[in-house]
Amino acid sequence: MNADIKAVEATVRTYLDGLYEGDAEKLAHVFHPTSALTTARDDGAIQIVTRDAWLDAVRNRPAPQAAGMQRDDHILTIDLVGPTLALVKVKCQMPPRYFTDLLSLLKIESRWQIVQKVFMTETRGA
After folding, report:
1. Distances in whole angstroms, Cα of residue 82 to Cα of each of 13, 57, 78, 105, 106
2. In terms of pTM, does the model score above 0.90?
3. What are the residue ranges of helices labelled H in 2-69?
4. Mind listing the pLDDT tens digit for each residue in 35-88?
5. Which backbone phi and psi does 83 adopt, to 5 degrees?
6. Are 114 and 101 in contact (CB under 8 A)?
7. CA 76: distance to chain centroid?
8. Are 96 and 105 in contact (CB under 8 A)?
9. Which residues in 23-61 are b (16+ Cβ under 10 Å) and which e?
10. Mean pLDDT for the chain?
11. What are residue 91's DSSP bridge partners?
12. What is the predicted pLDDT for the residue at 1?
């Protein structure tokens, strides 16, 4: 397997571990400081949250692991677009919310970092 694909996968696995564990430091390590998280709200408006605002939210909510939630996350695709750009699609959950994330990664100073997360949320059984 290509070394860059392995490195991208490792970055995304750290992201998924950080989500499940509620570990804002792991998340901060893989998200570039200028990154943002973007989604469409139920009213159709676009919501953009900075990395630091999101990390504060992670620090102030119960971690899925600590709450006893079942872990079920998957890397669906890794597209190594070029030597410095990758796109990754993942599924993860914090029941009753289920997420599909599209992660854009850039290789910055020899390290793959998430520079943008665009996501959607589905609510089931609430």
Report:
1. 20, 33, 12, 11, 10
2. yes
3. 3-21, 24-30, 51-59
4. 999 999 989 999 999 999 999 999 999 999 999 999 999 999 999 999 999 999
5. -65, -15
6. no
7. 13
8. no
9. bbebbbebbbeebbbebeeeeeeeeeeebeebbeebeee
10. 95
11. 74, 100
12. 56
How does 62-71 read in b/e, with b if 16+ C-beta sit within 10 Å?
Answer: ebbeeeeeee
C-alpha to C-alpha distance for 110 and 51, rounded to whole angstroms: 21
Query: For residue 117, which of 104, 100, 99 has the smallest C-alpha distance?
Result: 104
Q: Is 18 exposed, middle or buried (0-12, 13-18, 19+ CB in 10 A)?
A: buried
Q: How far is CA 12 from the centre of its chain?
A: 7
| pLDDT at residue 126 tops 70 | no
Q: Give Cα separations from 45 to 38, 40, 41, 42, 54 (angstroms).
A: 11, 6, 5, 7, 18
